[in-house]
Amino acid sequence: MINGKLIEAFKYTKKAIDSRFHVAIRDFQEISYLYTIIGDIYYRFGQYKTALKYYKRAFYTLELYQSNRNNRYYMDIYEKIGRICYEYDQLTSARYYCSKARAISDISGEDESRPVNLYITMGLIECKDEHYYAALDYFGHAFEILTNKSYSVHPESKLLYNYIGYVYFKLGQTEIAMKNYQETLSMHSNCSNHPKLAQVHKNIGLIYEKDKHDYPLALLSYKRALELLPSTKHPHYILYKSMIITLELKLKNIS
What we know:
The protein is an all-alpha fold. The protein has a domain of 98 residues: Serine Threonine Protein Phosphatase 5, Tetratricopeptide repeat. It is globular, with a radius of gyration of 19 Å. 75% of the residues lie in helices and 0% in strands. It has twelve helices and no strands. The longest helix is centred in the C-terminal third of the chain and has 20 residues.
């Protein structure tokens, strides 16, 4: 169901872009924004290379309209490219693009909801680089904005608990981590089959396996994570599959 909606969103957005090119006066800023939406759809499917292609296309399209590099739309694109670099473990490049986005954010200060994604991406970068307290600091900034301004509809608001939970897991505070994971799941109670919850179930499985040594529950969590991925081509598919196989072998040896 979720995948079908994403495919329909892609078709609708692509059609919207095509129609914008067949008018006398083209709004390149709007076309650029639509390209980022397509990039986001590919990102959700784990097709990071294609997502990056559309983010770059959004950037070059925006250049046709907006020469002011401090425009907030540039900030969004830089952050999205930074997230792709993060996915490819290119942390130096990820920091570079996020720093460009943050510079624009510091100058504009128009809409406090916009830096939420940026703070989250910067937090993810620091977490992957094992700077866990720096990660918590960035996630804290995002959480403060979401809480104080009541941006409950922000797409990242529900997943933020998962990111925070994983940092606490890496710090060895698994009880706090589990509470955050459970909070993420409870906030998605009306869409429990959403692909983005795959990572949450994987993280819960890590606690069951590494901390509680409850291997059957860990295995159930890993299998749930695998089945939630949007396709077998998703870059996390091989990882989750290998985690399942490894744990199944461990259980077999124990028995």
